[in-house]
Amino acid sequence: MDLRIKGRRALVTGASLGIGRAVAKELAREGCDVAMVARTESTLRRAADEIARATNRRVVAVPADASVAEDVVRAVEQAMQALGGPIDILVNNAGSTPEDGIDRVDFDKWQYSVALKQFGYARFIQLVLPSMRAQKWGRIVNVIGRSGHQPRPVYLAGGAVNAGLLSFTKGLAEDCAKDNVLVTGVNPGPIDTPRWQSLREAAVRTRGVTPEQYDGRAIASVPLGRLGTSEEVAGVIVFLCSEHASYVTGEIVNVDGGGTRCI
What pTM was estimated for this model as a whole? Predict the structure, then answer.
């Protein structure tokens, strides 16, 4: 299927690994030029070079920390300069929150998660939105997480951050619709990524579970009976960026193997 986004300029945050990397690759395969943003420069540049070679598209690495306002401004400016114009597609994916209950919550990490994920997403959007409005075309996809509407007692900080982003995404979509800028959210379930591996390792250290127990509990909550892959999430995200999703905005799509029970 031709998604009809060839030649569009895209910016993907959290793009060096996992879901973000898979999204960048899929956008490039669809003919987009892509700016990949992440903190770890060596990993990011290696990923960008590999995707550029595989897709024969312009794929650039833009090292930046999405929790730092000045970095966000610089990243957007560098991305537009490298890609030769304003950003048409923004996929916000940079963000992480540790798993902790109220008795173990680290408030410094919680505050950092707000700066990285909530403020980071909003800052990138604020900077790319004016040109999207002006050209009457844009796609913004926020990668959020199902804990925002399906709370878990061992993920209180992450659930609170994600719930805020669900509300933010819905409100922003209504504001942008008049300018044909479509705003959606994607809630990944348990996806086998480096991020998942780090959560598993933390649970082994702090909660006394084995890696097999950690994965097993997650898989037991998924009707499909397995962890998802980055590519499965990326496919949905890139479809939402396409012309085939031109009548979809304000929606939150769960990509979680059927694990979300709420309506």
Answer: 0.96
The residues with which 221 forms a beta bridge, in sequence order, are: none
For the record, the structure tokens of 46 come out as 């290696």
Tokens of 200: 């598993």
Per DSSP, 243 falls in state G
Per-residue pLDDT of 21-43, as tens digits, reads 999 999 999 999 999 999 999 99
CATH architecture assigned to 9-189+236-253: 3-Layer(aba) Sandwich (3.40)
Q: How far apart are CA 34 and CA 229, in angstroms?
A: 21
Q: Say how far apart CA 66 and CA 154 lie, in whole Å.
A: 25
Cβ 263 vs Cβ 151: under 8 Å: no
Indicate which residue of 121, 155, 214, 247 is catalytic. 155
- Decide if 155 is catalytic: yes
DSSP 4: S
Q: Give the neighbor-by-neighbor strand order of the sheet with 33-38.
A: 59-63, 33-38, 9-13, 89-92, 138-143, 181-188, 252-255
